[in-house]
Amino acid sequence: MTVEHTNPPSSPKSGPSDAEAHGGGSSFDLSIRVSPGKLALFLGLAAAFFTLLSFAGRFLRPIVGDVVSLFGVGDDLSVPSWYSSIVLLFAAVLVAVIALAKIRHRGDYAFRWGVLSVVFLYLSSDEMLRLHESMSGALLQPALAALGYEPSGIFRYPWILVYAPLTLVFVLAYFKFWLDLPSKIRILFFVAGALFVGGAVGAEMVNGLLHDSYGQGGVLYAAMTHLEEFLEMLGIVVFVYALLSYIGSHLNVKEMRISVRDGKTG
Q1: Distance of alpha carbon 31 from alpha carbon 256, whole angstroms
Q2: Which of 98, 160, 88, 149 shows the shortest CA–CA distance to 124?
Q3: What are the pLDDT digits (tens) for 20-74?
């Protein structure tokens, strides 16, 4: 990714610009150029690094203490959590850019793109604030206890009882949207979704079984937890790559420009 600073052309003999004449100050443009492949490679390597560092930290805790929790995947306010939240937020912004382009040019599925942006904005917040776990502890577990149901096995984590059906509804609602995507983007979306849902829901279900059999202290449980988080992060990376490819190839956007104006506005 490269960032270029470009000043607007001006003549040395000319007076102040319109913006300066009206008290608006000067302005300049920032050109941001992103290579989808290189960015995806960087994000993927970062995800692998955080996962390996977190897993190694599990064995180093007796030596270095709780400082390893700063790099633990799945831990609150850890570096990997911030990483996942920021990449999800970046994905939400990219989807919003596509939605705005569709609205401007009266393209297909503008509303669906807009809703998808909101979904990823929620996922970004959920990654940092652990909203699904808070909901599970505050609402689902007391409700299930009142019904006499003790969560176990693949449903040991009750939030799955809510998120799995919602995921199915989402897939059904977006199925035609997905079919109408260009073939390359359609495949990438499928891979991204399979990785993310496979980690968030599938691996979590397996962890429920491992918890019943071995508890949370075993190496196998820890390995599955790290696999879960890595699959989620990898799914997000593939999705970001797909979005950037779509923007570059199918929206004919070759460069993103940000205009910045400094000085007084009044």
Answers
A1: 6
A2: 88
A3: 444 455 555 556 677 889 999 999 999 999 999 888 887 776 665 666 677 878 7
The proportion of the chain whose per-residue pLDDT surpasses 70, expressed as a percent, equals 70
Range of the structural domain that residue 207 is part of: 2-129+174-261
Phi/psi at 73 (nearest 5 deg)?
A: -65, 135
Position 101 pLDDT exceeds 60: yes
167 and 197 in contact (C-beta within 8 Å)? yes
pLDDT band of residue 5 (cuts 50, 70, 90) is: very low
Asked whether residue 141 is assigned to any structural domain, the reply reads no
Tell me which DSSP letter residue 66 carries. G
- One-letter amino acid for residue 225 of the chain: T
In a domain, 166, yes or no: no
pTM score of the predicted model: 0.79
Q: Let me know if residue 227 belongs to a domain.
A: yes
Here the tokens at position 257 are 């420009």
Measured distance CA(53)–CA(50) in Å, rounded: 5
In the chain, the number of structural domains is: 1
| Residue 163, in any domain of the structure | no
Q: 28 has which bridge partners?
A: 260
Consecutive H or E run containing 101: helix 79-104
**Calpha distance 254→39 (Å, rounded):** 15
